[in-house]
Amino acid sequence: MKFLICITFSILAVQVYAQEFTLSQAGDGVLIELQENKQTGPIIIERAEENGRFKAIATLESPISARQLKDRLDELTPILPASRSTEIRSQALWGWLQSGRATHPFLNDPANLIGLGLAWYDTDIKPGKLYRYRIAGQTRDIQWQERVPFESRWILQEQIRHSPVADFKWFSTDGTMVDRIRVYRSQSGSADEQEIFPAWSVYHASGGDTIFTRMQDTMLQVEGQYSYRVEPLDRLGNRGQSFSTINYTYLKSDREPVVRKLDATEGKLSWELAFPERVRSLHLYRGHTFNGPYERIAVLKPDQRSFQDAGSTPMEGLFYYLVVNDVLGENRHSLIVHSIDKDVRSAYPPEQWQIAEIPEGIQLDWQNPLGSVRGFYVYRASGYRGAWELASSFIPASGQNHSWVDTSENLIPGQIYSYALATESESYQKSERSNSKSIRISVSEPVQSIHWIEASADNEQVSISWENLFARVPALAGYKLYRQYLDQENSPQLIAELDRNTNKYLDNSMGEPGQYAWTIIAVDLFGNQSSGSQPAIFNWTGKSVMAPEQVSAIKTRNGILIKWTAARNAERLQILRSEEQGDWLVLKDFPESTFEYLDTEIERGKKYQYKIIAISNGRAFEAAYPVLIRN
Fold first, then answer.
1. What mean pLDDT comes out for the span 612-631?
2. Which domains, ranges and CATH numbers included, belong to the chain?
3. Distance of alpha carbon 542 from the chain centroid
4. What is the pTM (predicted TM-score) of this model?
């Protein structure tokens, strides 16, 4: 008997997706970053040197998928900065999922990507070699470049004091290679230098190699003099040289220790101090006439509040002033007082006087009181019951009517200040303070809007020009320029941030022909923004020219290979080269469809820079920064 045995095989198809990934040189290794993960199992990373065989170097056991990352959004949210709402965080994470690249600081950190199984860091490499990486059938190449030293000169553009924050804005004019900065701080008199910002971001200005950044040091605790040193880093982690140190004086209040009151009667002096905790010593000076010369007669302890001058007589009429030496050094001296017999009658303060706010500050007006008057002093206090401090220097009496304007930069808008007057007689005796009067400082108006803006054709570009607001707003910092495509319902997009000396911009980055509207906003030094200007509308029908946005250089056995991305609407392309800091030399012209060039006319050991420009109607367009390489 024969039996027929039938065996059925089921063949299960396992779908393998192509895995996109990127390579970048970072520090001492190569960073492999996966795009959105579509695999269902572990991901194997393979590497080959030059044209050698591929070998597995790492396995990502459980890389997170797009759906899993979305499900873990609530878990990741506490890690992200607390100042952002859940909706914004969600948009940031989904922006990464949709575009294949990180748009939030959490996902910009390679360490976090490695922790999610979306990246790998390969440090087993050698300079100058070509490496090939393969993941799920996709292959990418990278030439590991030799480290190149560089220099960057930093200049302190502006120093703003917002106690207790040290707030600086720096810019560098040699910033082509700078990717971030490392900031060090030291205190005056100490050799210890502390690293306070290991990797602070910098921003590249459009159209040049100028970069800028802003840093706030909120960790100051002890009053004193501080120095900051900026160390530039390139994208490979190489350190550059810094040629400047920025100094900052930190006080817990902007006011200096001053002598509030100094009295002298029959050679006995007494005084009161503001901020006595900062005082290190007191220096007392004496003279025989008001105009001097003066000599120092005593160095006193910081807690001392009186002194008897044994070398004076009641009727001699000596003059004295006090100098405060605090943690930062010597301050300006106090008012000069005259020591005479205590029976001499003091002067009287003004009885009738007025106070008003004018554009220049706070103005006080008064008339001479009774008696023989030598001059006046103005006192100021914060609020209704604050401590009185001397606001003016000596105001000589001349005529019957007098006026004085408080133009101090320390007056705070919206704050209430009280004022009082005192008189000094011909015998150098000061009166008591007059009755006080108070006034509230007006709050300054917001940043003024720009009155006019216009758009016009400029060959294949659109020229945007606007009113120079700097003449009306001295505190102007710059402008923000927005563009909107009116043929579609979309929001205005920020296309440029410009400095305050600029009032013209050439826009060549439009997409489809149609109606566009440009709007500009003014920004002051404190971050306040004006309302938007009236839009400048222009019907653009021309073609915009776009130069290659990325240029790379790779050292090969036959020379230096330069590659670039596609240009748009260009008649031809030009490749230019310079040696070190020399002049640019045109090497060759290419049609727009060319994407690489091998430079063989080079010398070993030299540094070369390359850039690609697009030519149209006799005009040159440049988008990418020049690339630097050592042969």
1. 79
2. 21-143 (no CATH), 151-250 (2.60.40.10), 259-339 (2.60.40.10), 353-440 (2.60.40.10), 453-540 (2.60.40.10), 551-630 (2.60.40.10)
3. 38
4. 0.30
